[in-house]
Automatic annotation (TrEMBL):
The gene is Fbxl22. GO terms for cellular component: cytoplasm. It comes from Gymnorhina tibicen (Australian magpie). Residues 3-44 form the F-box domain. It comes from the Eukaryota. It holds the Pfam family F-box. SUPFAM superfamilies: F-box domain (SSF81383), RNI-like (SSF52047). Gene3D superfamilies: Ribonuclease Inhibitor (3.80.10.10). Keywords: Ubl conjugation pathway. This is FXL22 protein. The keyword Zinc does not apply. SMART domains: LRR_CC.
Amino acid sequence: MHITQLNRDCLLHLFSFLDKNSRKNLAKTCHKLLEVFQDPLLWSLLNFHSPVELKKDNFLLGPALKYLSICWYSERVKVCNIEDWMKNSFQKDFCNRHENTVSDFLLDVCNRCPNLLSLTLSGCGHVTDDCILQVLKNCPNLKSLKLENCVRITDHTLEAVTLHGGSLRTLHVDFCRNVTQAGLERVRQKCPSVMLRAERSANMIPDSKPEKKLMLEKASRRLVQL
């Protein structure tokens, strides 16, 4: 029996075991398999392991998407997640190449995936509070928001959760160094039903300008002298 002789349900089941590239390659072989590739039922879950993958055409975004994960585990994450003023010209050039990649993708998700239930971002150093705010506004059914090592996330995101995260049940802001204890307490008070986790976040050193760091160092030296 040839693969194209299988009914649509069987083909969808077969496609579900394939990664995005394999699905795309199989879809190129004939019109029938292309139709299966374009079936929304196939795209309720998307996992990405690099911002580069977001620019490929081997997946579909649509109302069927329920679970989205973008986890960037690489040595390059350390470059994009350090403070901007500490980066050398080479590092800045590297980061600028994909600074808006994840944010632009998430804005596209806001416009096309209103039924999103779960969003996980890890190591996405360029994602901002405004981007998460737009997700919360445009995806009212979002139940799980997990952010890890997203260094531009601040208490503004936590405030957005209290205002627009009515369906949210899980919130992780682990290793987000610009989140404060006060912001976390505000979420606990206003959203008691949300399972909140913030490993290391409020205990990490937040971003600050060089002038502020210099002032702190001088103050520390004076205390030592006294």
